[in-house]
Amino acid sequence: MVVVNESLCDLCGTCAGVCPANCIKILETKVLIDYNQCVECLNCAAICPFEAIRVSGEEVIKV
Amino acid sequence: MKREYDVVVIGAGPAGSMAARYAAETGANKVLLLERDREIGVPVRCGEAISESSLKKFVGVNSQWIASIINEVRFVSPAGYVVDAYTPARGFILHRRLFDHYLALQAASSGVEVITKANVEFVDEYKDGFRHVFVDIFNEKYTIKSRIVIAADGVESRIARQVGIDTTVKLKDMESCVQMLVGNINVKINRIEFYLSTDLAPGGYLWVFPKDENSANIGLGISGDFSNSKHAIKYLQEFVKTKYPDASILTTVAGGVPCTKPLEKIVDDGFMVIGDAARQVNPMTGGGIALSLAAGKMAGEVAGLAIKEKNTTADFLMKYQKEWMKTYGAEQKRYYRLKEFIRTLKNKDFDDIALNLKDLSPEKITLTKIFTLAVRKKPALLVDVVRVFANI
Question: Residue A61: inside a domain, yes or no?
């Protein structure tokens, strides 16, 4: 499952432009992902200029 | 706000404001322009460069929103070789916030109703000559009837896809961009600079566009298929830290630029798509302001005419698509072919081009000359080079 780090997200909409499922909606202050439509292609995570999208469970915990 | 309109435009960037204005001036009486954000023109996700000829053609020139006048273009190769191109034509760096305000106010002067903080949730299908626009304005939900809906919702282009026009951009054709407005630096106010290097910006380029003597838009775009291993922000942070260690960073914005072939379908019954949402961007340069102004005007005029003639079907609105393809379609294809070729160039190729131009007198170093050298290993592209640079 892809997750958006809201503190990094700039709401630029680039992820939505490459989403083949059209399941990303940019609001004025946040991003909504329709997980029922998401096909987990990870295009959004690849394209994000600020690296604000990750696959959940992939976070490296730094001690 | 009314409950029924002739034309509703979604998105108040340059494309949307132009479309609304020209629809109102051509024959639509009730035109509504909806902007999702709290302020039109903000944030500025743009390098802000436009040619003087395009600006004069579509808007005119107003010193209020001109930051700097450009008459020099510099390319820097990976090894640091400098090529100063001779350009008879001038360009401008805009203050996009003020420019976008101006365009929206022009629309308002023509009778367009403008509303901000208006988030369109959904546009339904065309029935009995209308579509319904479901919109959230200041946390209140409204349903608005409109004979024509024009989607100008930018790179995300959600509305067009929601009504069935596939505007999805392939990963490799989306440029992942970051830009900083950087202060406390010295730049030449009349010169824009481009850095070509797969180390600085793979599948794209880095730009330095002066806003005044001590500040500039410094940004870069990288192709989506290089972005996963290292994201755009990292490339730009490294460049600015190395090249301008004393810089103050006033703004950092992200953005995406669709660099695709022209879309085959940009209209439907009671529906048109324009600007970045319609992928109307020069795929080689990533420049989109001029094309958005052009598309907005073209679509707005057809929309106004459709209202006057009482025919808002796809058959009628097709006038816009046909005119667009006739005027800009072939050009976008040429630029796309050139972009696809430039993607294949290595750092050594960029350095070779620069070295090749070293002994030429400055007025011989034209954009045609530079790109002719660039494509010399693929002469089939020469025709494209000659055609696209003939007027520059």
Answer: no
Question: Which of B290, B305, B332 is where one domain is finished?
Answer: B332
Contact B117 A28 (CB under 8 A): yes
Smallest CA-to-CA distance from B303 within B15, B37, B3, B60 is with B15
Q: Which of residues 175-214 of B touch A (CB under 8 A)?
A: 176-178
The closest CB to that of B169, out of A17, A24, A25, belongs to: A17
**Alpha-carbon distances of B43 from B95, B99, B144, B176, B177, rounded to whole Å:** 12, 13, 27, 17, 14
- The reply to whether ipTM tops 0.90 is yes
| Number of domains comprising chain A | 1
Q: Which residue of B has its CA nearest to A46?
A: B228
Q: What region, left, alpha or beta, does residue B157 occupy, with left being phi > 0 and alpha being psi -120 to 50 degrees?
A: left
Query: Which residue type, as a one-letter code, is found at position B223?
Result: S
Please write the tens of the pLDDT for every residue from A41-52.
Answer: 999 999 999 999
Residues B207-256: pLDDT tens digits? 999 999 999 999 999 999 999 999 999 999 999 999 999 999 999 999 99
Question: CA-CA distance, B291 to B70, in Å (whole number)?
Answer: 20
Residues B177 and B244 in one domain: yes
| Measured distance CA(B253)–CA(B43) in Å, rounded | 8
B233 close contact with A: CB closer than 8 A: yes
Q: Are residues B282 and B313 in the same domain?
A: yes
- 8 Å CB contact of B255 and A46: no
- Is some CB atom of chain B closer than 8 A to the CB atom of A24? yes
Residues of chain A contacting B122 with CB distance shorter than 8 Å? none
CA distance B255 to B178: 6
Residue A34: which CATH number?
3.30.70.20
* Structural domain span for residue A45: 2-55
**B228 with B141, same domain?**
no
- Give which of B109, B132, B108 is closest to B122, Cα–Cα: B132
* Structural domain span for residue B361: 340-389
Q: Which candidate in A10, A18, A43 is best for mutational testing of the B interface (most B CBs within 10 A)?
A: A18
